[in-house]
């Protein structure tokens, strides 16, 4: 980064100053939040650490980035035709998707949701996968396709080690799942075995992936330059196309692949302490309030599950220092988890459009009768926290553009935070342009990578399989 570029970045990452009637209070609020603001030098240091962690991960050295090989070496090429299934597992329900493709175009799409009871989510893995297989059979038979060979892409949105395109070993359950006998087991084999026990369909599980990878593949159907998949929802993760000769973790036979999709698993970036220098008192309290302490460090700065909580912690500390809500006792706001990220997006809409309409409604949810200076402070806090999240995402995306060094690269994005936050996309475009000025890029929304994307990856896997026969 040249001195001119660094000055431009320093100017760009400044948020608008807080304007209050009480100048002394304004100064105290700004001083307290200064720890959440980055200089251009700090930005450069974060980017250097991210690049270093990527390099270590890709070479199988200790790193906070998993850099998992997905074994997906190419994207849809427009020849995909036929019927393909996707099973999308990751929450309290799962989805079955049937796609009919004709030369890469979706000509038919059928989706069915199935609930997963608490007993199935925390009990025996055999029972869980038998239930999944029963639902697959139900779906296929209802479509009248029980006698048709159906390739299936399995979206398994839990941390796993991939040993091939169709082998994914669960490392740990997250969210609301805890079936201990599945840990360190291959999820594809468990699903295949459950389908075999039924024997009433001809479903063939060809590939396992996560929603991030599916987002990249789904994005490629909209823009062939797509080279990065990004999730900005409850959590965050990214994947990208890496040169195959750089990838050391490759357990299957190579067939002259030029590139392969790497799942970074960047939610854990910094779990080894490399980002400790940007961690604030607010972040430490946010971490202490989380389900799994000292983990998912990067995600806790960014993800929709945590962004609102960071704002809440800041507001709580401002209140405790007598800088906010002086005539109130905001009991609900003092309770962890009560201020969600969608409310942050609502407040940010006021900052974009002017006024206090949404901010007033948000505070009224907490029983706070609003005063203008208090609303200005709340807006300022939401802006600082959101801006930091956008900058951290952009730092890493710019590093990916530099690493891939493509003539043009499209970043496919999915997730509720990206869709609903009114400023993230604009900030990201601005910051990535400043951080990777010599690389052409664009951001596109790519919905349902975990569904359509998985079916498309099954189509790619089918093509690869035929090529090797």
Task: Please characterize this protein's 3D structure.
The chain is an alpha/beta fold and 469 residues long. It has 2 domains: 242 residues, Hexokinase, domain 1, CATH 3.40.367; 139 residues, Nucleotidyltransferase, domain 5 (2-Layer Sandwich). Helix content is 44%, strand content 19%. The protein has 16 helices and 13 strands. The protein has a 6-stranded mixed β-sheet with strand order 1-11-10-9-12-13, with helices on both faces. Strands 4-3-2-5-8 form a 5-stranded mixed β-sheet. A two-stranded antiparallel sheet has the order 6-7. The longest helix has 33 residues. The protein is globular. 46% of the residues are buried. The mean pLDDT is 94.
Mean pLDDT over all positions? 94
Q: Structural class of the helix and strand makeup?
A: alpha/beta
Strand order of the largest sheet: 1-11-10-9-12-13
CATH fold name of the largest domain:
Hexokinase, domain 1
Characterize the largest beta sheet: strand count, sense, and whether it forms a barrel: 6 strands, mixed
Shape: globular
Radius of gyration equals 23 Å
- What's the total helix number? 16
Order of SSEs: HHHEEEEHHEEEHEHEEEHHHHHHEHHEH
In total, the number of strands is 13
CATH top level class name of the largest domain: Alpha Beta
Characteristic key phrases:
single chain, alpha/beta, Nucleotidyltransferase, domain 5, 6-stranded mixed β-sheet, 5-stranded mixed β-sheet
Question: What would a concise description of this structure say?
Answer:
The chain is an alpha/beta fold and 469 residues long.
């Amino acid at each position: 980064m040249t001195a001119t570029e660094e000055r431009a970045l320093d100017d760009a990452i400044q948020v608008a100053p807080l304007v209050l009637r009480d100048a002394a209070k304004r100064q105290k609020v700004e001083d307290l939040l200064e720890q959440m603001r980055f200089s251009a030098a700090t930005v450069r240091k974060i980017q250097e650490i991210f690049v270093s962690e990527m390099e270590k991960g890709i070479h199988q050295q200790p790193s906070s980035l998993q850099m998992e090989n997905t074994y997906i070496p190419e994207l849809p090429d427009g020849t995909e035709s036929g019927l393909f299934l996707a099973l999308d597992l990751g929450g309290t329900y799962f989805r079955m998707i049937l796609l009919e493709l004709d030369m890469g175009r979706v000509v038919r799409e059928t989706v069915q949701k199935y609930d997963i009871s608490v007993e199935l989510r925390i009990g025996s893995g055999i029972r869980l996968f038998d239930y999944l297989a029963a639902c697959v059979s139900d779906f296929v038979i209802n479509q009248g396709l029980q006698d048709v060979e159906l390739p299936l892409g399995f979206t398994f949105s839990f941390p796993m080690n991939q040993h091939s395109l169709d082998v994914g070993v669960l490392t740990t359950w997250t969210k609301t799942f805890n079936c201990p006998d599945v840990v360190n087991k291959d999820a594809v084999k468990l699903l295949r075995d459950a389908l075999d026990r039924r024997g009433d369909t001809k479903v063939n599980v060809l590939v396992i992936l996560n929603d991030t990878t599916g987002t990249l593949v789904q994005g490629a159907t909209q823009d062939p330059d797509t080279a990065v998949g990004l999730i900005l929802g409850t959590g965050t993760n990214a994947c990208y196309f890496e040169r195959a000769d750089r990838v050391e973790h490759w357990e299957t036979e190579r067939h002259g692949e030029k590139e392969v999709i790497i799942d970074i698993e960047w939610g854990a970036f910094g779990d080894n302490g490399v980002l400790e220098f940007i961690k604030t008192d607010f972040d430490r309290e946010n971490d202490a309030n989380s389900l799994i302490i000292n983990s998912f460090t990067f995600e806790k700065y960014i993800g929709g599950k945590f962004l609102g909580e960071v704002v809440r912690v800041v507001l709580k500390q401002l209140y405790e220092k007598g800088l906010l809500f002086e005539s109130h006792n905001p009991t609900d706001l003092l309770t962890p988890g009560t201020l969600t990220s969608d409310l942050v997006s609502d407040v940010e809409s006021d900052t974009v459009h002017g006024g206090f309409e949404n901010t007033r409604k948000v505070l009224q949810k907490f029983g706070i009768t609003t005063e203008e200076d208090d609303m200005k402070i709340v807006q300022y806090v939401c802006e600082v926290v959101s801006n930091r999240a956008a900058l951290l995402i952009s730092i890493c995306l710019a590093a990916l553009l530099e690493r891939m060094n493509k003539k043009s690269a499209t970043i496919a994005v999915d997730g509720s935070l990206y869709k609903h936050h009114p400023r993230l996309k604009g900030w990201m475009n601005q910051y990535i342009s400043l951080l990777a000025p010599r690389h052409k890029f664009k951001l596109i929304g790519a919905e349902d990578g975990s569904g359509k994307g998985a079916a498309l990856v099954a189509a790619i896997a089918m093509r690869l399989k035929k090529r090797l026969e």
